[in-house]
Amino acid sequence: MPGPSWKIALLTWIGLWPTVTVVMWVVQPRLQGLPVPVQTLLLTAMIVPLMAWVHMPLLTRLFRGWLAPHRTGAGDRP
Question: What are the average pLDDT values for consecutive 10-residue runs of the chain, which has 78 residues?
């Protein structure tokens, strides 16, 4: 189980905000002549794979203890 939805949402935002900021800063000046729907299509085509295959796996690994802290109880096995 990956953890509570609010923790996944917060972790997603932590990864998404700097990713969107950097991609927009680097790429958007080159896209300014294009219609906004095309700009967002291209930006999201870069951001979504970065989030899915780079940032979220890294963030979930780094924050695994916070996402799903181990609970000890009668049903746990060694």
Answer: 84 96 94 95 96 95 88 56
Which helix (H) or strand (E) is 25 found in, with range?
A: helix 5-31
Tokens 């990864």, residue located: 15
Burial zone of 4 (CB within 10 Å; 0-12 exposed, 13-18 middle, 19+ buried): exposed
Residue-by-residue DSSP string for 32-74: TTS-HHHHHHHHHHHHHHHIIIIIHHHHHHHTHHHHS-----T
d(CA 6, CA 51): 17
Query: DSSP 3-state assignment of 4?
Result: coil
Q: Tell whether pTM > 0.90.
A: no
